[in-house]
């Protein structure tokens, strides 16, 4: 449904081209009905990419096609305006029209659509249908400014979907909501996307949002894409140190030396020798090995002569509800973050053993 090839958009600073939030030759595709997320820190270029797809930025080079039709192609001089690209867009701000009712907000873009020229009856039918889909049918006659934040966000989404776009673009649409409502809207937004079946390009800096909602995620940094994959692949098999540290929490230890055998890879680190039985993403020796805090096994005593078992002391324990986060200082001086259920707490200053199951040790290049 969307194909982006070698897209470049650079911004000038003091007369010289620099990335500065731009993009440098990125390529990705979105399948029909897919929920695809551009994820990365502020200034990585994700919003520039979305705005280029929308026709709100003029790229320097590359090609963008929607449903097989080129909407931007620098080599052939193609650059269609946003109104001709068949997209719907929801911004970070709700951007609803407060002087209109809910129904009028949804109807307005249909009334302005000169290509389809829908009758009043067709518009009313479409408005009723989309308001029912987003759960706002009972508010059709209410003034838009009387809606709650979550309702305004759903109205903004309804307005974007009203014209039945081929592609939906969402630019951090949940960032203005409070934490509880944001969690609820994640579920609601994903449900609506599945119901409508519209291909969706979503932009966010929130890792948990991306993991919870996406079919696939592209991790961006400094104007380039570092890794593309489904949420599980991105989380459990990051390709490099940046992706590993950006997605969730991660213990990362540089390798001083490494050698492979039938058991896997043995790496010497500041913690000690660590065995990684999982395959790495390359035949090259890893520059570091890593393990998620939830995979670190804490116990009050050693469990026999097991691999990857290190003695240490609890430096800090932070209660987080169902889990407690621990900071362990090992005898080597290295620090390990670990998580375990709060029902069986370990006190600060307690002696513990931290074990890294070899199947959960990740090799990073």
Commentary on this structure:
Strands 7-8-9-3-10-11 form a six-stranded mixed beta sheet, with helices on both faces. Strands 2-1-4-5-6 form a five-stranded antiparallel beta sheet, with helices on one face. It has a five-stranded antiparallel beta sheet with strand order 17-21-18-19-20, with no helix packed on it. The two termini are about 35 Å apart. The radius of gyration is 25 Å and the shape is elongated. The chain has about 375 residues and is an alpha+beta fold. The chain contains eight helices and 22 strands. The model has no long low-confidence stretch (mean pLDDT about 90). The chain has helices spanning about 45-55, 100-110, 120-135, 150-160, 180-195, 205-215, 230-235, 240-245; strands spanning about 1-15, 15-30, 35-40, 60-65, 70-75, 80, 85-90, 165-170, 200-205, 215-220, 225-230, 250-255, 255-260, 265-270, 275, 290, 295-300, 310-320, 325-330, 335-340, 350-355, 360-365. The chain has two domains: about 1-240, P-loop containing nucleotide triphosphate hydrolases (Rossmann fold, 3-Layer(aba) Sandwich), CATH 3.40.50.300; about 250-365, OB fold (Dihydrolipoamide Acetyltransferase, E2P), CATH 2.40.50.100.
């Amino acid at each position: 449904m969307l194909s982006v090839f070698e897209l470049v958009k650079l911004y000038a600073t003091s007369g010289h081209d620099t990335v500065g939030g731009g993009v440098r030759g990125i390529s990705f595709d979105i399948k029909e009905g897919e929920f695809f997320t551009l994820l990365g820190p502020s200034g990585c270029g994700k919003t520039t990419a979305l705005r280029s797809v929308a026709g709100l930025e003029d790229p320097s080079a590359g090609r963008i096609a929607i449903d097989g039709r080129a909407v931007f192609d620098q080599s052939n001089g193609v650059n269609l305006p946003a109104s001709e690209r068949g997209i719907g867009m929801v911004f970070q701000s709700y951007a609803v029209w407060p002087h209109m009712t809910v129904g009028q907000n949804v109807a307005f873009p249909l009334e302005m659509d000169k290509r389809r020229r829908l009758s009043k009856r067709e518009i009313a039918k479409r408005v009723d249908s989309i308001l029912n889909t987003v759960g706002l049918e009972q508010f059709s006659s209410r003034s838009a400014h009387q809606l709650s934040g979550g309702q305004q966000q759903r109205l903004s989404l309804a307005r974007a979907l009203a014209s039945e776009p081929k592609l939906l673009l969402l630019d951090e649409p949940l960032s203005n909501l409070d934490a509880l409502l944001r969690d609820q809207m994640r579920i609601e937004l994903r449900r609506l996307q599945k119901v409508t079946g519209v291909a969706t390009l979503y932009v966010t800096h929130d890792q948990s949002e991306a993991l919870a909602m996406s079919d696939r995620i592209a991790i961006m940094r400094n104007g380039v894409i570092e890794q593309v994959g489904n949420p599980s692949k991105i989380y459990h098999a990051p390709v490099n140190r940046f992706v590993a540290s950006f997605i969730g929490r991660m213990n990362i230890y540089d390798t001083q030396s490494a050698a492979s055998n039938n058991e896997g890879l043995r790496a010497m680190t500041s913690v000690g020798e660590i065995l990684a039985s999982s395959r790495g993403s390359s035949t090259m020796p890893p520059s570091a090995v890593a393990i998620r805090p939830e995979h670190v096994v804490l116990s009050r005593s050693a469990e026999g002569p097991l691999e990857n078992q290190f003695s240490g002391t609890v430096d800090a324990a932070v209660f987080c509800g169902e889990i407690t986060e621990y900071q362990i200082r090992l005898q080597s001086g290295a620090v390990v973050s670990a998580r375990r259920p709060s029902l069986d707490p370990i006190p600060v200053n307690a002696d513990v053993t931290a074990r890294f199951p070899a199947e959960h040790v990740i090799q990073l290049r």
